[in-house]
Amino acid sequence: MKVLAAMSGGVDSAVAAARAVDAGHEVVGVHLALSRMPGTLRTGSRGCCTIEDSSDAWRACEKLGIPFYVWDFSERFKADVVDDFIAEYSAGRTPNPCMRCNEKIKFEALLDKAIALGFDAVATGHYAKVTENDDGTRELHRAATWTKDQSYVLGVLNAEQIAHCMFPLGETPSKELVREEAAERGISVAKKPDSHDICFIPDGDTRGWLAEQIDMEPGAIVDAEGTQIGEHEGSQAYTVGQRRGLKLGRPAPDGKPRFVLEIRPKENTVVAGPKELLDIDLITGIRLSWAGTPVPQAETGEWFQIELQIRAHADPVPAQARVEYADQAPRLVVELAEPLQGVAPGQTAVMYQGTRVLGQSTIDTARSRHRTDVPAVS
């Protein structure tokens, strides 16, 4: 097969490309330029897609003896990831830019271009697996090792995209083995630290960055009964579950810390309260997509059993789900068997059955049976 290897400049993508070469595929490496700031440099494990990363990707391809290209997706990245991130926070939601990047850039824009150029598949360094059924349909599954599994951030992939995906690291037991393999192959990034945080906010100061992008106005922090207990400098800079930075002038009656329960952007209000009110057991979701063939109940509106995961490294929880159709747009409804805390609108809810990724939805509402100040979802 003709395979396009997405080269981030890290050890995982380098070894994934090397394994694709070993498998006998015709491999071409490509690094995505997502920023137009030529002075951008990596700082330790902060940031990615930098000049340093591009150079590391080139050196890995040179070592593997495969062609290397840089594709400029910076305009698409700004529109589909950065601008979306700002818009979501402006609306009082907490987005996951890595999900949007995988959905819109790494697998939509990249894969579309790869197929147009005659490639059969795109290989990445994600820890996940793709299996093929007897009828030729393909499914996305968790990696062999739970601690390295990255299937959550791939939950946005659809059936057509999964059909052209290759994840050579899916069966690898540990990152240490990948680093050892890179060292044995003479790949220079064998000991390079993993990147973390939001790539376009490399200093990690999300609140400070948002303050430069969004016009924020001070407003009230209220408790669940609506009584003002403090002031904020801009509701968009807060997220559900947050404890630090509230600067409340009135202590709680029981003396316990309070957490952000809800953001109300139209009122420019932040609702804060005790930790137990963070418990939620009912979620609705929009932008529903299926990672392969949808479950039969998707068309009938019947309940089906799932495990739900709301963060990349969170444990899944048992739940039941069904699909409603409002104005022809599918809406996911999930009832959790046990409560979760700190669930915020804008986060991505990924559905599993066993190791299989069923699909995902962007959380629209998250409600708790303990909350009496907000309406329940019918």
Automatic annotation (TrEMBL):
Signal peptide: none annotated. It comes from Garicola koreensis. It is an enzyme of class 2 (transferase). It is found in: Cytoplasm. GO terms for cellular component: cytoplasm. Keywords: ATP-binding, Cytoplasm, Disulfide bond, Nucleotide-binding, RNA-binding, Transferase, tRNA processing, tRNA-binding. The keyword Nucleotide-binding applies. This is tRNA-specific 2-thiouridylase MnmA. The active site is at C101, C199. Transmembrane segments: none annotated. Catalyzes the 2-thiolation of uridine at the wobble position (U34) of tRNA, leading to the formation of s(2)U34.
